[in-house]
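Example 3.2
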Amino acid sequence: MLRANSLAAQGLGLTAPNPIVGAVILDSNGNEISSGFHVGGDHAEVVAIKNAHAAGFKDLTQSTLVVTLEPCNHQGKTGPCSDAIINAGLKSVIYAVNDPNSIAQGGAAKLKYAGIEVLEGIETEAVALTNRAWLKKIKTGSPWIITKIAATLDGKIAASDGTSQWITCEESRRDVAKLRNESDAIVTTTATVLADNPDLTPRFDSGINPSGRVKNPVRIVMGERSIPVDYKVNNENAETRVIQSRELSALLDMARSSGWNQLIIEAGAEFNSALIRAGLIDEILLYQAPSVLGTGKSFLSNLGITTLKERITFTYGDINRVGSDLRIQLLSNPSLVNPLAVSRFQAGEF
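Structure, written as tokens:
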């Protein structure tokens, strides 16, 4: 299942409004004979079945399908995965997370009715963590929102004169390029654009996702000031949408109507503070450089907190070294963090 989960992660940023899903087919001895993951088009289960057939495994009657999400049971752009599994003659299906989407539910029951052995709930925590953006969207209607912060040890994102390139090392910036690739949209403000003139694309890898597909996330600029036409966000490297408002509801409305799973915020203290005050930040990714400035611009401003009891608390997730920096993940929902499940996935125990 952890192997299927790692495959699913390769679809991050490519599947909205659908989930990321990975699948592995095993022979009767437990050996992998094929795999697949969803990047749009065929679902992971169908990709794995087709790959098995292409590899010469036509008879799957003694084979097991391991898949991260309960197979769907509805007709959308593609047919029900439950039907594809039944038609392929698979002996058994193992999956991690029940499908919370009422439109697509019922795949497991249909498979059982067809005489296929079904086992559920394997490595659920690790898979749910990887697919957290889509699962949150289905549950709440709102996308998973990450704010990315590059800061010094004393929490500064720019010096007093406004200079900020580069606080963190090149390895961190490459990691941010990967994060952008995994998101549906990058959100910034007119203040940030006018100050830094960012391109807001995965500049290191030109938008090449691990799946091999090229894609840049949509750039969203919020604010009431105009942006000069020659600024980088107006180039053709990616689509840019302007929200001429400071209302956070306008951003959420756009995300919902677009079916996006995940947004990444790349902005300054005022916008980040507004999002945190509103309880909209699900995850902070802090790239912390081993340097200090003493004075300068902080990544947060006034949160309206006057006493320790009012503090806003996050839970540590993954913490690791990236080049000379630390990459610190903080989650607003502590139930998502199971250190054992996370460490096993990261260690590649599959």
